[in-house]
Amino acid sequence: MSVIIFLVILVILILVHEFGHFIVAKKNGIRVDEFGIGFPPKILTLGRKNGTEYTLNWIPLGGFVKIFGENPNEESISGPDSERSFVNKPKIIQALVLVAGVVFNLIFAWFIFAVIFLIGVTTVVSDTDLKYSKNVEVVIMETLEGSPGAIAGILSDDRIISLDGNKIDPLNGIDKIVTYIVGGSGDIELVLMRADEEVTLRIMPELGLISGDPDRRAIGISMALIGDLKYPVHIALWEGGKITYQITKTVAVAIGALIVGAFTLSADLSDIAGPIGIVSVVGDAAELGIVSLLFFTAIISINLAVINILPIPALDGGRLLFLLIEVVKGSPLQPNVINSLHNIFFILLILLILLISYNDILRIIGG
Question: What are phi and psi of 197, to 5 degrees?
Fold first, then answer.
């Protein structure tokens, strides 16, 4: 089932990417010969419209769009239909077509995050989000090893119900708990909800647990407000855009560090998941529910966007790089050189994916 879910996600994300190239090419008068679901060999032709053949293919690993002149040859450069060729369009149009797939993947991630916020998600709630949240509770996020809280038996995910007999109001729960512990003099009684079981613990706070404040009493826990957060449409779109930007930035920095590590021979491929590793993560996400699966899908969409914009031949970023070189050079590059570089790097990328997949298999075997 995990494999099927992964394939469905992969097909959707790649089709979104290819649809970006497709629609921008069409809107700018470029001939698109084929839009394929899956990869050849072809099963059947779904139809033909405005010169584009829509096909269903046997290998269910995404899809493709065949744009006339994207891989330049004599026909696309000077043939009878060369006016509709990608290679003969203005450079700005070519750049828009090339970057469209990346943009569509980012827009799709944005859409998914907005949908998540519209459906509602159980998450850490800030003070400003309390009015959009329900079932808010004070939850233990972490317990400091060796602290009074850890020794007493407080666990992560415990929910605090009351403190010395006083029921906790989540609206001011964390501040109230901290103030009470700091200002007290003796031990305290915490009533916790652990799963569906109520647990009562007596704890003596300790001085000096907080660095730089030796006179402050603490029990060694970190807390957060956790609730069911659900935004109205306009805020869901805004917050979806914010999280898309934040995650895109994080992914770009991580991939950049990996590339630098590759050149300095310090890159660790064992921390990277390939298709096989992603399948196992898909299974975990699916078990946690539709929101987790949607979140995972958005993350993968962002990763596809960032990877595709890298200035490496065979990727959209590599084609943009060649386009920039042509602008600076003032004349076209040799088509056979460009096509050869794309083919060589495509093979290298496949070999890299196989290497990462081998590491995935070793990780799975090793538990």
Answer: -115, 135
Q: Residue 237 carries which side chain, given as an amino acid letter?
A: L
CB 218, CB 146: distance < 8 Å: no
Does the domain spanning 123-229 belong to CATH 2.30.42.10? yes
Whether 233 has a pLDDT exceeding 90, the answer reads yes
Structure token pair of residue 271? 């921390």
CA torsion, points 18, 24, 26, 29, in degrees to nearest 10?
A: -140
Cα 308 from Cα 225, distance rounded (Å): 38
CA angle 80/86/88 to nearest 5° reads: 65
Residues 6+ apart with CB under 8 A from 3: 279
The domain spans of the chain are 2-120+232-365, 123-229
Ordered alpha helix ranges (H), 227-267: 233-263
Mind listing the pLDDT tens digit for each residue in 28-78?
Answer: 999 999 999 988 899 999 999 988 999 999 988 788 999 998 888 889 888
Closest CA to 218 of 206, 233, 227: 206
35 touches 18 (CB < 8 A): yes
Single pTM value for the model: 0.84
pLDDT per residue as tens digits for the range 189-221: 999 999 889 999 999 998 877 766 777 888 989
Q: How far is CA 279 from CA 42, 115, 152, in A?
A: 26, 23, 40
**What angle do helix axes 2-27 and 91-119 make, rounded to 10 degrees?**
140
**End-to-end CA separation in angstroms for the chain:** 20
